[in-house]
Amino acid sequence: MTTTPGRRSPVRALAPLLCAATLWAAPVPATAQPPAARPAQVEVTTQRAAARAPGDLITYTLTARNKGPSVARNVTATDRLPDGITFVDSSDGCTAAGQTVTCGPEPQLAAGQSRSWRFHARLSPSYEGDGTDLGNSASGTSDATDPDPGNNRPDPVLPPGPFTPVSDLATVKTPLGSGPTVPGQEFEYEIRTSNKGPSDARNVTVTDALPDGLAFVSSADPCAASGRTVTCGPLARMIPGGDVVWTFKVKLDAAYSGDGENLRNTATSTSASKDPEPADNTSQPVLPPGGVTEPQADVWTTKRTANDTVIAPGQTFEYVVTATNDGPSRAVDTLVTDRLPSRLAFVSSPPSDGCRATDGTVTCGPQAVLEPGASRTWRFTVRLDSDYTGDGSDIRNTATATARTKDPKPENNTSSPAGLPGSRVNKPTADLGVRKEAVGTTPPVPGQTFDYRIRVSNYGPSADAFNVKLTDNLPEGLSYVSSSPSGCTAAGRLVSCRRTAPLKVGETVEYLLTVKIDPAYKGTGSDLKNTAEVTADNIDPASENDKGTATVPGGHVAEPSADLAVVKRAVQTSAVAPGETFDYALTVTNNGPSQADQVSVTDSLPTALSFVSGDATCVSGRTVTCGPLAHLAPGASVTWVIKVKLDPEYTGNGSDIRNTATVDSLTADPRPANNTSAAAGPPAGTVKEPTADLEVGKTTP
Predict the structure, then answer these.
(1) Which of 373, 404, 595, 692 is the most exposed place for a label (fewest CB within 10 A)?
(2) Domains of the chain as residue ranges with CATH
């Protein structure tokens, strides 16, 4: 407790006055003073109390004591409260005008008497200081003259600290909606956080750890999720008595199969302020609205044709059936069944779809799990009877989807009826198809022949094909040789094969076309690819398979190859004598298969023979070269003749005058062994005795 002087009235003399102020404490009893023959004095005392939190009530006690010697009349005490502290109430009649609290007046105080007033004030809930700005003092006045006014106003009194905010938060979590909740459904939680004070709660947040089976969806409030933990806030400040409501949406797992008891969960509020009762920060655990009921999946079906291409009797087409799960739960073991009309027959289904048929009923599935919002599509192919004569209006039926999961809307499980593609039927048709391939895998050589195998089929579905004609326009480099069966003809490079008998549905006829590569062909074969095409008098519903294309066997043409052979012989048949001339004929033949290019012959003459003359392309010398001939076709021959002279001094019988000629070209030769001729000698294989026609002349000097 501290004491400070009072205050003198500036208007009239006041009796001695004693004034005491106590913060956060009960009144302090007055201390009796003996009368004195001196001016009155005022005494102010204070008593400190325990620390308070922002928002708490402060009890102030103001005590005025008359230290005499005169009676003090109309005694009042005033207290100017600092900012941050506001007057609340008083049981002693104190009142406030703004921040100024006035207590009294007390009609009179005899010397030695005292009067205490008590009032409540509140420290601002939002106060954030350390208390140094909260100091204040009280003052007292009366009608008497105060001889010592200095003790009427004590020194400012600071409230005790520290001033740590204390906020008692409470949390209530409520599921919104009546329920019961179906697996896969979404619903909302409302979380209400209230501040029971006394201080402002700062940075208020709520966390909600969702159990397995619940997932955060969205929130219009500042709520977000990290994993399964939802956090709402922070709210910067919440006043005492205030509250905040956060709402967020969650989804019950579509695969959930429990009774909901394991979904009970709580929400917890926290703030930066100290909480004196943390037990109510966490809400009571709650279930989804109305609890959890069994899974439900609204499965519905559509059926349609894969396209609108009109078909003919005997043709196939594809149905597409789709089961869609509108939820809210996952559908388990979804099946689609389709009872086909009598004029439709199941043909097949892709392995990935696995539809099958029993007694005209097609079954697709089961799809083990169909999640909410998901669809499963199956395809299967059916055939329209080849003898069907209607317009298609009588061929309409539905597909139905079922699942082991309860369906809340079974009325949409069956699709609308679906009919034939394009909702009509074409006239009976014959789909002709051509498959063409080269026979063999060995690349052919220019000049060789090879076969094309061409199969023409009538795939129907509903009519025989009449006046079937196969044509094959051969490219340059290929020429027609023959066909099997016979009957194909060629006009230039266009080969035509005509069938007089109808080609029945499902029947195939095969042609073998023998063709020849031009012996002079120099390409790789890529330009020899050619196409066969079939036509008939019928409607063909699928013209894209009316043509078949193939290249040469092995996919390319081998390098040209020409088997050249050379023969050397003496042209004359009668023997010659030394010094006489005779001719050799050098004949080159191309045994094919390709054209030979740049063909030449060389002949190295024996020493007893010398070159005299030859054809224009033959070059003289000991080694005679004839050619080159630019091209020699397969089966063709060329002969060069050279004239030689037997040495006049030759004395032999001719057996040693034998030699060969050799042919060469730029084209590869598959049999080089016959490129050199057999050795040839002089005419008749022998040499006559030397002869000399002597002439004698005589002259005179």
Answers:
(1) 692
(2) 19-151 (2.60.40.10), 167-281 (2.60.40.1510), 297-423 (2.60.40.1510), 430-555 (2.60.40.1510), 562-685 (2.60.40.1510)
